[in-house]
Amino acid sequence: MTHGMYPNRDAYDMVLEAIDRGEFKPGDKLVESELAVRFGVSRTPIREALQRLETQSVLTRDGRSLVVSSLDHDELAELYVVRSELEGLAARLAAQHAGPEEIRVLWTMIDKDRELIGRPDLLSRSNKRFHRQIHLASHNRFLIQQLESVRRSMALLATTSLEVDGRSEKALEEHERIVRAIEARDGPEADAALQEHLSRAFETRLLAESGADGNFDDGDGRA
Ligand SMILES: [Zn+2]
User: Fold this and answer.
1) What is the whole-number distance in angstroms between the Cα of residue 198 and the centre of ligand 1?
2) Residue 130 alpha carbon to ligand 1 centre in Å
3) What's the predicted TM-score (pTM) here?
4) Which of 44, 49, 210, 218 is deepest in the core (most CB within 10 A)?
């Protein structure tokens, strides 16, 4: 089916991860031949990956080219509502189903994150891993699938709320509260803690984008 070094799924993952890491930002054009060279795969799997990402609305057709989609203000707000409810549910289920090893991994992640304060780029990546770990700890495959779809849309955000001064420390404290609740097997508290965490993050993002923090906006109005 493919003649590249990697099967299709990997070309797809590589492109999506590059968008998620901010290497390609909303509005950037993705060119099949350039991606093939960049990732060292043949054009067929890249073409299939791009088609799939277009179907998933991660990419948008602009004339003959494909560009990374951007979210408008309303879409961003709608995304946060869904993300907040689904992640809250994941935390609630994690409080019931997480194994002791999974809970220890969450604590280890928080410990490591303390050393990353002041490095928003690394913290942002680590934050995604932390949230993903909670999704997995829910042990509900359907929920994990839905959260994957949310994650794809979150990849379209060009900036991280962790860039705002003081937000990293606050976010870590909020992560601690979530894990404490999971460890205490307190589902409702884990749910509430996670939803409040995302609500603070969204608030920070809105404030920053309204211009309250000059460092945050990358200057071209991307949401
Ligand atoms: Zn977080």
Assistant:
1) 7
2) 7
3) 0.82
4) 49
